[in-house]
Amino acid sequence: MNHAYTATAEAHPNIAFIKYWGNRDHAERIPSNGSLSMNLRGLVTRTTVAFRPDLGSDRLILHGRPVGGQALARVSRVLERVRAWSAMGWYAEVRSENNFPTGAGVASSAAAFAALAVAAAAAAGLTLPERDLTRLARLGSGSASRSVPGGFVEWHAGASDENSYAESIAPPEHWALADCIAIVSAGHKAVGSSRGHRLAETSPYQPVRVADAPRRLNLCREAILQRDFAALAEIVEADCHMMHAVMQTSRPPLLYWGPPTVALMHAVRRWREQEGLPVAYTIDAGPNVHVLCPQEAAEVVRRKLAEVPGVQRVLVAGPGGPARVVE
Ligand code: PMV
What we know:
Largest sheet: 6 strands, mixed
Number of strands: 16
Radius of gyration: 19 Å
Order of helices and strands: EEEEEEEEHEHHEEEHHHHHEEHEE
CATH architecture of the largest domain: 2-Layer Sandwich
Number of domains: 2
Strand content: 15-25%
Bound molecules: (3R)-3-hydroxy-3-methyl-5-(phosphonooxy)pentanoic acid
Helix content: 25-40%
Distance between the termini: 17 Å
Shape: globular
Strand order of the largest sheet: 8-7-9-6-1-16
């Protein structure tokens, strides 16, 4: 096998401050609204892609175990596009590992597909601009487009494959924020995000949420550029509630919160309003609560979160860099 057709890449997951929920085109993953996130340093997915002449189909090996079904189909979708964009005609073996618990409410698919896109392009000998790597990652998982660039990243919704891409609005050093992730359940989600995105359009609230997204994006982008934590806290929590309102009013309704999720939301509000602690929460398609704060407050926040009943563990991550080839 020619060594040149192998590459390894690493990527971080990200936490969305303005959420992506719902697609206008499910096949190409063109989202209903733009979104904005921060990459999470310290949490890493490492993926190796090897194109080989001896394979009769693509192969996926997660943490040393072969995986098929939907996960493999999504990986193949990204690999197919790499083959279409390059002279590569072979199937690939993809090996991937996370240094954080999969399915623990830390969106592992974002880091996984960002690392896959970067590794697969390099392995096929393609030198793509970052913008095209974000488009490639988007095909596997929408939020993965935001894990390709570094730091604070905006994914422009666009209307087609060409103009639905992500770019950094500020590097990781721009703002020393921390995401303190209170893990209340390490199990897999009841309804995955691919199905959730399809249900979004069944909620009467989704058109309202989508129409208001440019306003929220502007407020969030400004809060980040100005390093204005109070403004960030307000818009991040409002956006989180709008997404969960859509989820909870879909048919069938999706209720991702458990009792500890709600307890944590109340606790965070109390710490901010009564104790003056700079904190804000956001929640993805699961029960875990991401608590944002300036890095100097992270140790206090971590300790307080660990004391809330139902919290099993707290992960703390600062702003992370871009996805990159490591070998
Ligand atoms: O990229 P997906 O299909 O896993 O969807 C991500 C959905 C949320 O995590 C709930 C929101 C977001 O923007 O990350």
